[in-house]
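Holo model, FE2/S2 (inorganic) cluster. Inputs:
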Amino acid sequence: MNDTKQSRRGFLEVILGGGVLATIAAVVYPVTKYIMPPPVAEANLSQLKLKYGRADIEGEPKKAKYFKYGRELGIIFLTDKGKLNALSATCTHLDCTVQHRPDLGLIWCSCHNGKYDMDGNNVSGPPPRPLARFRVEEVDGTIFVSKEDV
Ligand code: FES
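Output:
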C-alpha cells in the first residue's frame, strides 16, 4: 500500500516536473528567438548586375531606382550631365533611407532634413559623413555596381 502511494507520488512528480519544464521552455524559447536576430549571412558580392537599364532611369521627370547590394540599400540615378551615379541609400546620420530629389538638386533625408549633393557629399543638416559610393559600369546597356573600396 505504501509502495503504491510512493510510486504514484513519484509518477505525479515526474509528470508535474515535466509540465513545469515544458512551460518554461515554451516561454523562454520564443522570447529568446525574438530577442536574438536570425543569422543572416552577408552576401559576398564583388559586383551586382542591376535589373534596371539606363532607359528605366532616363527621362523627365528624372527617376532614381533603389537596389539591394547584399544587405545594403543603394540608389542609382542619372546626374544632369548624364552620368550614372550609385550611392548608398542609407543616411549617415541615423540610417533612414534617403530620397533622390532632382527638383531640389539633392539627395534628401526626410527624417531630419539631411541634405547631400548629387555626389553624396553631406551639405547640410545632421548627416556627419558623405554617403558611400558605388562604382558603376555600363556594358551593352546593362548596369553593374560594385563597392568603391574593393
Ligand atoms: S537620419 Fe537622415 S538626417 Fe537624420
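The two ends are 80 Å apart (CA to CA). The first strand starts at residue 48 and ends at 53.
Archived with the compound record.
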